């Protein structure tokens, strides 16, 4: 039978399975949802039934295959509360032959291999996020679906062929998603990614993107969706090279950790910068002045000089004895080899590894000159000769990075010799330890020391580069920390996310270009996100009063949320703790999570007040649930987090807790911008005048 004829032949449908006409469009869509669920179950069962006994040779390959199968089964799980599709595109006839696609979190196909749901990351899904009446991308109709739990309850259509201008219309379903009371960890935003966000999400793997955006503009969300997108578009390459998401602290990582798994991506590592450089145990801290200098990029030069100072130019010849013959390489020739290796600027360890072979090569040249014909094995044997080994040890000794840093911070003369012209004598004095340390193990290393050790380690041996790194809250890193992240994506790319106005470290960057230079990604594109999806208009306007005083030039976020009555600022005359507890009780009348944010020094007293009032509370990083919704958040940990309602304890104390006013105002700005539905500010005495 000709192929075409067979493919068009319809199988007879049994009488009991004859489709009855669906009563309305919503019912039809529900029918498609349930058919898609059935198809997904069939895909999962197919994988579950795979029998690997006959196809695997060894137990190792069987184990590998089984783990791949398990991962695939996990990917194909049907999460009952996560909609399988959230959108539909009906294409115009021009390019896609009038095709209709359902857009969802993962690809689902029927028994014949035809798609029932396409992955949101597939090229065919892109118009769902980008198409407009002005530029319809060949799409006739965009349909968005509304869900309650796992049940499809609504849909909303946009006719992209309508000639009327688009106007300022915001989708009701998007509005509902933005206004949804928050509880629990961060969720994905695949159903409502906005066009300017989508451009960043789908930008190419080759380039680094830096995103500046005010609080709640979706930077974290965009960064996470970008990894998911890149993993889809470059699965094999990134599986080989690896991906990493860097966040400011554990609580934050805990808050975001479920977003990627919900998108089917289980293999992305998440870490803080401190985790990345944890070669020594950190048990100490630095005064701000010392941390600033240790974090300065000039320290990289100091370390480089200090490391290379271990190379001693040879003054003695090397004498290699083989059998009855002796081969002598004079000191001046050894020096040439060493100078050449120094000039090549390869890693200290790589040069050290190369040196014995270079000396052996010089010996072989002499052997050949006398008519011998030595091969590679002879060269290897000469390189391992005790005289060569001894010379290498004397000329290019091994250096342990932590010991190098220990000596620089303990030995004033050693530091002075290598910081000459780089650090002033005062700066050197500032970073020297008052009491010199004896051994690497007994030092109370600070986080900044660990970064120095990481730099020194990289000078000795190149750090492996990942395929892609997402760096969140990037404004807070020191130049040396940028370098530490940069070497982990030196041959890959990065997504750098941050807000200059939320920089609260003494070394916070004031310029993205500078940060990108330290990261080694000077040619990155800097994008800006300006629409705010978290903070209500009234609240962001209040917080933005601080901007001219701490980050002049940065524009106020354009809030997508009206929410009148979302801000209350109240002066307390009397017991502040009691007033705060009462405000928390009020906030708990609403659904959603409640964050009580206070200066770190106030946390203990407020914890006691809450406990006395029988109000159980969580610490940041613990998941809020419907039964446990109140979190007591020290202001220093509030960054990146959000709560439905926020009670903010005495702003002046939050400002005063920081070493300088600008940092204090920035800390306050972060605290004021965590609320989704409402913010209550309680103060005793005056508010910071900048809020006036
Ligand atoms: N397109 C969108 N649709 C729906 N919700 C969104 C969208 N973009 C962002 N959001 C929501 O807005 C909130 C803030 O997002 P996110 O935490 O990514 O912002 P951010 O810019 O990283 O904020 P911050 O500067 O405070 O760290 C989150 O709840 C996120 O899910």
TrEMBL record:
The keyword ATP-binding applies. Keywords: ATP-binding, Helicase, Hydrolase, Nucleotide-binding. ATP binds at residues 213-220. Residues 1-32 are annotated as: Disordered. Residues 192-545 form the UvrD-like helicase ATP-binding domain. The keyword Iron does not apply. Residues 1-13 have a biased composition (Basic residues). This is AAA family ATPase. It comes from Streptomyces albipurpureus.
């Amino acid at each position: 039978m000709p192929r075409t004829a067979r493919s068009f032949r319809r199988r007879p449908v049994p009488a009991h399975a004859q489709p009855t006409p669906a009563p309305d469009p919503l019912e039809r869509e529900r029918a498609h949802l349930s058919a898609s669920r059935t198809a997904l179950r069939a895909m999962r069962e197919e994988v579950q039934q795979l029998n690997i006994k006959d196809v695997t040779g060894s137990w190792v390959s069987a184990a590998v295959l089984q783990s791949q199968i398990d991962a695939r089964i996990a990917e194909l799980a049907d999460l009952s509360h996560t909609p399988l599709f959230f959108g539909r595109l009906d294409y115009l006839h021009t390019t896609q032959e009038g095709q209709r696609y359902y857009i969802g979190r993962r690809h689902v196909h029927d028994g014949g291999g035809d798609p029932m749901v396409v992955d949101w990351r597939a090229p065919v899904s892109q118009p769902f996020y980008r198409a407009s009446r002005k530029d319809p991308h060949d799409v006739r109709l965009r349909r968005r679906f509304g869900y309650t739990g796992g049940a499809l309850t609504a849909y909303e259509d946009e006719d992209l062929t309508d000639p009327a201008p688009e106007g300022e219309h915001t989708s009701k379903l998007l509005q509902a998603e933005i206004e949804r009371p928050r509880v629990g960890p961060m969720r994905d935003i695949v159903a409502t990614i906005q066009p300017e966000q989508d451009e960043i999400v789908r930008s190419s793997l080759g380039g680094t993107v830096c995103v500046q955006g005010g609080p709640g503009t979706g930077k974290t969300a965009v960064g996470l969706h970008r990894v998911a997108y890149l993993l889809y578009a470059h699965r094999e390459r990134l599986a080989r090279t690896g991906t990493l998401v860097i966040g400011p602290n554990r609580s934050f990582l805990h808050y975001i950790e479920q977003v990627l798994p919900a998108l089917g991506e289980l293999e992305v590592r998440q870490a803080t910068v401190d985790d990345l450089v944890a070669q020594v145990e950190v048990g100490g801290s630095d005064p701000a002045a010392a941390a600033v200098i240790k974090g300065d990029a000039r320290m990289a030069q100091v370390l480089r000089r200090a490391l290379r100072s271990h190379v001693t130019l040879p003054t003695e010849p090397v004498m290699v004895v083989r059998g009855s013959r002796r081969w002598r390489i004079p000191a001046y020739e050894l020096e040439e080899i060493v100078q050449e290796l120094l000039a090549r600027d390869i890693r200290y360890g790589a040069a050290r590894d190369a040196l014995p072979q270079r000396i052996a090569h010089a010996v072989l040249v002499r052997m050949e000159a006398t008519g011998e014909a030595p091969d590679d094995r002879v060269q290897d044997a000469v390189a391992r000769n005790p005289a060569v080994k001894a010379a290498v040890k004397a000329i290019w000794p091994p250096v342990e990075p932590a010991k190098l840093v220990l000596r620089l911070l303990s030995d004033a003369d050693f530091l002075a010799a290598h910081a000459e012209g780089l650090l002033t004598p005062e700066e050197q004095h500032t970073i020297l330890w008052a009491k010199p340390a004896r051994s690497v193990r007994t030092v109370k290393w600070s986080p900044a020391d660990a970064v120095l050790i990481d730099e020194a380690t990289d000078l000795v041996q190149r750090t492996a580069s990942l395929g892609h790194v997402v760096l969140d809250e990037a404004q807070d890193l020191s130049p040396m920390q940028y370098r530490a992240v940069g070497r982990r994506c030196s041959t890959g790319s990065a997504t750098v996310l941050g807000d200059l106005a939320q920089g609260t470290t003494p070394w916070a960057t004031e310029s993205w270009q500078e940060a990108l230079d330290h990261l080694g990604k000077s040619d990155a594109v800097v994008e800006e996100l300006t629409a705010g999806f978290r903070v209500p208009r009234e609240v962001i306007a209040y917080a933005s009063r601080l901007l001219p005083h701490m980050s002049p030039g940065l524009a106020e976020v354009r809030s997508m949320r009206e929410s009148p009555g979302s801000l209350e600022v109240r002066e307390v005359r009397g017991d502040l703790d009691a007033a705060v507890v009462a405000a928390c009780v009020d906030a708990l009348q609403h659904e959603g999570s409640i964050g009580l944010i206070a200066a770190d020094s106030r946390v203990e007293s407020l914890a006691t007040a809450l406990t006395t009032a029988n109000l159980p509370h969580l610490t940041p990083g613990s998941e809020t649930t419907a039964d446990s919704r109140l979190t007591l958040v020290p202001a220093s940990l509030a960054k990146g987090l959000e709560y439905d309602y926020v009670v903010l304890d005495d702003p002046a104390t939050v400002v005063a807790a920081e070493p300088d006013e600008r940092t204090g105002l920035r800390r306050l700005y972060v605290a004021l911008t965590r609320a989704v539905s409402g913010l209550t500010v309680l103060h005793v005495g005056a508010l910071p005048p900048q809020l006036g």
